[in-house]
Specification:
alpha+beta, 4-stranded antiparallel β-sheet, 12 helices, 35% helix
């Protein structure tokens, strides 16, 4: 068996240049990116990624959800591929690294292996999953969810954005609907490199996060219906204020999350108020409560208490309340063998590291259902993500990608 040495490293400068070049597509207004899924900008980013993959000698596959698969051949035609990747779509006010580092880090692994003339028994496939963010089309990780059999393709195609445009129609419109059956690919293993999107690694001075688990997630869309009325002429006792009811529900959400400290969290990030006029009492509000915990029974408790508290508040205020579960997944335990490969890679390269639970959802959380999976994380400044000010250093990017390289190559097996 080939012993991997510290001299096996990626080209950090080339990786950084690629990140900066991709960031030119769909620029945000404050230095980040707005490259939302299935927009023209998404299509342009995909085309750039494909051109880079083909220049690296990869064969590109495309499935019916628009998931992209760039394969570097292995020496054994019967060996299942080792997959690596993440996503290229961003939040409306997203950063340059969330998801993108995982895709372009995977590409850099292949480029570096080409530079060094290294062959592997197993093929290596770099993946760009469609609509990981879930902002334009809920839920998040939509296409990896279809790949893993969590969602049906027809259901995914029928998802609509705020303008009523369907996912399937927009995928076809931008020209990235493939013919390949979704989920038909078998994987030897899957690795995802990602920025932490949290403050732990930077605060503790660690180079690498070895992700052992992923938090479970629950998204519940809450609709409160009262009665819109004039803010000046409606007496206080006669008001059915949906906005005030929402405020009280959100206070309850905060209390519920705090009751399961320190690992549980809860908030509402998406809120629509109708009619949203300065002098009209809100007649309806629609908001999504996001609960997360690494323990399934805690998530279940938080969901139940949301409904109990919401019903109590609605009854007391004379408004109507309805709930719809619009997304979520159970807590994830990543594969011991893949996690060990990541940990050994960090040790071999001399990087400080710590085990970590991912607080965000990732495509790896779904792929873990169908293949051995692990994640590598690098720090991000102040833990800030889903924000145009999201930032990492070239050194952090290179360290995470070097760990990814070693974990992938160990799993794909070097051929002498």
């Amino acid at each position: 068996m080939t012993v991997l040495g510290q001299n096996l490293k990626i080209n950090g400068e080339r990786l950084w240049d690629s990140l900066m070049e991709m960031a030119k597509i769909g620029p945000g207004v404050a230095g980040g990116n707005n490259r939302q899924t299935l927009t023209d900008e998404d299509g342009e980013g995909r085309a750039l990624f494909q051109s880079w993959c083909e220049a690296a000698g990869c064969e590109m596959g495309l499935d019916q959800m628009g998931n992209m698969f760039a394969m570097r051949a292995g020496t054994d035609p019967d060996a299942l591929p080792v997959y690596v990747g993440s996503h290229l779509d961003t939040q409306p006010t997203g950063g340059k690294y969330d998801g993108v580092l995982g895709v372009l880090g995977g590409l850099e692994v292949i480029r570096s292996l080409n530079d060094m003339g290294i062959k592997t028994k197993h093929p290596i496939v770099v993946t760009n999953f469609t609509n990981e963010e879930g902002t334009r089309y809920a839920p998040a990780m939509l296409s990896s969810g279809v790949f893993a059999g969590i969602h049906t393709q027809d259901w995914a195609y029928d998802r609509e954005d705020a303008e009523g445009k369907k996912f399937g129609d927009e995928l076809t419109r931008i020209g990235w609907r493939g013919d390949e059956e979704v989920g038909a690919r078998e994987m030897h293993a899957f690795f995802e490199l990602h920025i932490e999107q949290g403050p732990i690694l930077e605060a503790e001075g660690k180079d690498i996060g070895v992700v052992t688990h992923g938090q479970g997630l629950s998204w519940t869309q809450v609709t409160i219906t009262g009665k819109d009325a004039h803010t000046g002429s409606t007496p206080m006792p006669m008001r059915r204020n949906a906005g005030l009811a929402m405020a009280r529900v959100l206070e309850a959400v905060d209390e519920i999350a705090w009751s399961h400290a320190p690992h549980a969290v809860g908030a509402a990030g998406h809120i629509d108020v109708y009619p949203n006029s300065r002098n009209v009492i809100p007649g309806q509000v629609v908001f999504t409560v996001d609960f997360r915990s690494p323990e399934l029974d805690v998530i279940t408790d938080m969901e139940n208490r949301l409904r109990e508290e919401g019903d109590r508040i609605a009854e007391a205020m004379g408004v109507e309340i309805a709930y719809e579960k619009v997304g979520g997944f159970d807590p994830v335990k990543f594969d011991d063998g893949c996690v060990s490969a990541v940990r050994k890679a960090a040790d071999r390269l001399g990087f400080s590291h710590t085990d970590i639970i991912s607080g965000a959802g990732h495509d790896a959380c779904w792929i873990n259902r169908v293949a051995p999976t692990a994640m590598v994380m690098c720090p991000c400044v102040d833990g800030l993500s889903h924000n145009e000010a999201e930032e990492i250093s070239p050194e952090w990017a290179a360290a995470g990608t070097n760990v990814l390289l070693h974990a992938v190559v160990e799993t794909a097996e070097i051929v002498e």
